[in-house]
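To assess whether the prediction recovers the assembly geometry, we first specified each molecular entity separately, as shown.
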Amino acid sequence: METMTLKLRVWRQPSTATDGELVEYTASNVSPDMSFLELLDVVNDGLIKKGEDPVAFDSDCREGICGSCGMVISGVAHGPKSATTACQLFMRHFNDGDTVTVEPWRANAFPVVKDLVVDRSAFDRIQAAGGYVSVDAGGAVDANEMLIPKGDADAAMDAAACIGCGACVASCKNASASLFVGAKVTQLSLMPQGQPERDRRVLSMVEQMEAEGFGPCSNEGECEAVCPKEISVSHIQTLHREYIRASLRRITST
Amino acid sequence: MSAVVGFLASSIGRKVTMALSGLLMFLFLVTHLAANLLVLVDPEAYNEYSHALISNPLIYIAEAGLLALFVAHLISGIAVWRKGQTARSISYRDNRWAGGASHKSLASATMIVTGTFFIIFVPLHILWFKFGTYYDAGNGVRDLHRLVVEEFQDPLLVAFYVVGMAVLGFHLWHGIGSAFESLGVAHRPKVRQAGRMIAVVLAGGFMIIPLVIFFTGGGF
Amino acid sequence: MLEGKFPEGPLESKWERHKFDMSLVAPANRRKHSVIVVGTGLAGASAASTLGELGYNVKAFTILDSPRRSHSIAAQGGINAAKNYKNDGDSVYRLFYDTIKGGDYRSREANVHRLAEVSVDIIDQCAAQGVPFAREYGGTLSNRSFGGAQVSRTFYARGQTGQQLLLGAYGSLMRQVDRGQVELLTRREMLDLVLVDGAARGIITRDLVTGAIERHAADTVLLCTGGYGNIYFLSTNAGNSNVTAAWRCARRGAYMANPCYVQIHPTCIPQSDEFQSKLTLMSESLRNDGRVWVPKTAGDERSPQQIPEDERDYFLERKYPSFGNLVPRDVASRNAKSVCDEGRGVGSTGRAVYLDFSDAIDRLGANVIAERYGNLFQMYERISGDDVYVEKAMRIYPAVHYVMGGLWVDYNLMSNIPGLHVLGEANFSDHGANRLGASALMQGLADGYFIAPYTVPHYLANAKLEPVGTDHPAFEEAEKSVRERVDALLAVDGSKTVLEFHRDLGKIMWNKVGMSRNEQGLKEALSELRALRDEFWRDVKVAGEAADLNKNLEHALRVADYFEFGELLIRDALDRAESCGGHFREESQTEEGEAKRKDDIYAYVAAWEYKGTDQEPELHKEPLTFDFVEVKQRSYK
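The predicted structure of the complete assembly is given in tokenized form:
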């Protein structure tokens, strides 16, 4: 099998508090069937053997669903192939001799922990602010007592497919989390279960999003273009509608 | 009250302010263009229309309104831009546009620049035309047509206006569609396409006026 | 003799009656109790949120940066529930029966019946949370038949059921975090269990960002840390899934039950090169329309479409005329292995068989096939680079997918260590020797939403628990042993990387303790594993420092535990000289080469007690009795 040699420029940053820099590594004998993360595995094994610190990066399922991995590869979040997470990006999409720059998600709301590892707990806090239906275990009615039109269920599923990787934030010039928040808000606003808390949810999730330091939506749509699950920016429009509606209701009720 | 302030201070609220003020100014520009085109077709009608406008005392309210829209758009725009800037302190070393589903364009990437341009353009525009030489067309009607024709004999001014309108078109290329998105209007691709077409037509329409006047010497 | 402590009475009313018999904790007293939940997958997130809802003080731990990433998220197919919405003859009893039979009569009747009972509540709960299950046009929930089941009882959310159920549980968990009822500790790995007066009273964790070793005390510990499939190095498990938390409990005296029961999934994308870090599963539904075959002659390197019909061996259809390509997972997997062992495997490595869609495309048209499997074909194309629409066939090979074995628990999901509860895949309890498709999600959520919230309070109400602080000598001792272990690994400073050791370990396990096992191979595996373990402690090179984010050190700690646990797995496989479910012993097969159970000897749960490194573990047997179901040999001929 033909193998490739690539030059990697990888962001190395020992910790949140320290400065980082791009460091060059040469990866040889790269198999086209390797994933990008497997390439980093091999580079790391080489570094370990040389007594150097391997490149830290998050990864878990390696099948594109957990949302752990995330890095900007050649200037694009998750790399050049659309609808693909870094773990599902295979080296057959690169050419021998390519120089590839690898950087962490950059957003003040996602501080770099080390190298390519960032802290995305801001997303958890946004979820905690209201990204759920408040129902305790045990109190549910029979599932078929709540009829949901197929179209609504399908549309809700489209929105719910978000894996929370943060590529939307990473790619947005304003580091906005609107797509992430919009996807959750849309999912629950489409379903009857989400109605009682509809206003409260969008208001508090947006408030939390602001508090975390994410920027405003740029309406450019880079987020959708890099989203591994191709979550549509139409969810951001829904978010805005929901937020305007809820705000007006709050204004008129006070 | 705090609910209103909370909404306006939120980034979505700011986007909404920017979108509404932008769209209202855009509507003003549509009427402005329609009226201005009269310069090319019917000088008298143009002067009469202008007269009707400026002789109406409501004009001050309208002008104050436009100024308010301009300021609101400016402030909300800068606030949105600044919030976006502060959301990422360290920039990428290698940053490329994603392409594909993205609508990112040179226009969308330079909104703050093209917008800021009008802080210079609009006062000059008002200075040259509102506060330009007063020609009397008789019956107390101002001969604005003459002023326009005279002003656009200057190639530098024509160039400035052509560039200015190109910048406007560029701003609206992203701005119109973006405003509808900020307001939560669905059907993004169609709205966006329509917005771009309208931006071209509007900017083109405004551009035609100085060009035609310059190249025909006003004797059309 | 070990006892499961099942309630008396008829099968159908055991759980109801037990729920009444168990003690309660008054609402005002609940906040006085603290609960540690380790792991935030389906079992952990559902348990932590539910106990939080009830008013207990919960601390939830995950090794990942967010609970939403736990590996439950990767489950594709669906979740079973005995709703009988399809009016096709399903019932709690039928789900119970299918699970017992599917588990090859190596699970407990009482547990399995309870699982089937609460399955219906799970669907209600998840639907109420806003999980976007697939629906019919009328708005009711959609069901499908899964994994060869005779009834349509599987609920699903596209091919992302695990994701949606986990996000539902995660939402509930985050709601309790917001209420302050659950404290969430992310990027924390449990490295030891702390026992005080014989009861589980806390854990030692490592902060994976700073490397700090921390102590956490509580009244009870719930271990929800998933399975140990990654001992095989290549599996469909996520990279961080590991045995360490469970194994550390085993070292503290918790019995490890049936570790040899490993489920191997037949339809995975084959390994392409030695750098491969994981295998990807494709939904079993592919076998509904795909035909499995290999060339009749070994070494045939032509592309699949160039091999004529009469030179193909559709070995599953040939050997199992009635079930054909839909034979159970273990049968399909084992047969794929054996044709590859004969040298008839395909692909660059020779370790794959074809799953062919030409017939289905001819019969139904490419559009119908694309509609059914388009996303799977896309996934296959992304990973392998091959287009199924052109090749008309994909290459598949079995991979380790799920483990039925785990820490031993009684009916209350408590291990033999008082206060140590074990939920989800981490326990051994409900699937016997083989798990049915779409039942893993069901069990995780059953344990977390509907069983532990009853049995854990029962424990708390009855246990005489003295207040214990983290300054207790037991915490001191446990922390010290964790520190020593970390330092020891970093001190080796050898020449071979952790990844290389893990890969080598995986090869031993896969080749000799994989789909097909025999006494000689198992004995060889045992000695090879020990030799590799010794080499590991002599020659491993772990990068970096203890007080830092150090993924290499995390991996090293886990691999070190695999070496110890692996020995137990092999011993269990050696002890069980019968074939049942996911465990196939070549010595125990019928004349036709089918699995043969030996119910008279092996109808027991093998619960192993750790006795120290290089010491023989002690086997405790929990006999399995079947009072309600007639025990039969499986036959798929």
